[in-house]
Design goal:
Distance between the termini: 48 Å
Strand content: 15-25%
Number of domains: 1
Radius of gyration: 15 Å
Number of strands: 7
Order of helices and strands: HEEEEEHEHEHH
Helix content: 40-55%
Oligomer: single chain
Length: 156
Amino acid sequence: MIKTVSLNSRSSHEREALLPFQEALTRLGLRGYSTQSLDNRIVLGCGYFQFGDLRVDADTRHIIIEVDHSGVTNLVKYWQCVESGLIKKPIVLIHLYRQNTSGDYASHVALWEFLNHQMSSALGDKFTAHVFTYNPARLRSDLTAAVALFENLLSM
């Protein structure tokens, strides 16, 4: 049996994962960009990428949250954009992987770690990324460290 996830279900999971980060922005009185609105796109000749599920443009860098359940596209898309000069400011990426069990998508996280190492070597101080996994039933507690990192980055 093939499991399908409706867009509404995916959007709901994404919204739930982003909520603690949006609450941090509200507490700090800061603005973030989200959704696929015109002000949250990286335009390419052939189309566009969403510029983070949640993005804060700080003075010296972009702080980006990406929420996934599998895959590495939301990591590797920044390689092309930074290397080509399309994105000028350094990026700090906080990448969240939803896991229903501890083994879900373990191979994707391992590939993510490999690609992150390659990207960090190639891009130097223009790119830094952190990966966190969370179980939807323990979302708040599993994301405590990620939210703390986000708040720390916002205060720098």
